[in-house]
Amino acid sequence: MDSTLIKILYTNAFNDIESARSCQISISQKEMELQMININSKYSSFDNSYLNNMKKQSLKMEIVNLMNKRNNCINSSIGYALTIAEKEVQENNTFSTAAIVIGSISSFISTVKNSFNISITNSTNLSLLSNKLVHSGFHMFQLKRAIDDLKSSCNVF
User: Fold this and answer.
1) Sign of CA dihedral 142, 70, 19, 113
2) In sequence order, which residues have a C-beta less than 8 Å from that of residue 143 and are 6 or more positions away?
3) 38, 47, 84, 141: least surrounded by Cβ within 10 Å?
4) CB 98, CB 146: distance < 8 Å
């Protein structure tokens, strides 16, 4: 794989993880709005329960959609990173750019731990790559550690 393709995959992986972060910020904002509605309902002297329920349902739907979008971005980012990692293993590279991307992804996943599910394809590829790295030498240690961290973050065994 030439360096131009690696750069494109690297850029795409980071762009997708940034999109996921943006979605997470929006999710947090929507959750805060939901809490404000609950507080307003509890302490308001007016009976706007119907209107508040409509707003709550709308916000909940937006949150679900944002979570799906965020999870798709994370899975896309993982796919790009695993493609880079696979090539590095094939080429027996000593410096791993994939480890940098995977570290960033793992760090982000740890902030949304309970609400992210890795795709079956990425889970399978992650396990296969991890198994390949078991037999690699010490020079692939950085990538192996990043892969193990990602497996742990995604609950892949």
Assistant:
1) negative
2) 85, 88, 89, 96, 98, 99, 102, 133
3) 47
4) yes
- Tell me the per-residue pLDDT of 70-83, one tens digit each, with 9 for 90 and over: 999 999 999 999 99
Q: Tell me: the pLDDT tens digits for 17-33? A: 999 999 999 999 999 99
For residue 138, the one-letter residue type is F
Residue given tokens 């690699």 in the structure block: 136
Q: Are 74 and 22 in contact (CB under 8 A)?
A: no
* Topology adopted by domain 3-153: Glutathione S-transferase Yfyf (Class Pi); Chain A, domain 2 (1.20.1050)
Neighbours of 120 (CB within 10 A): 8
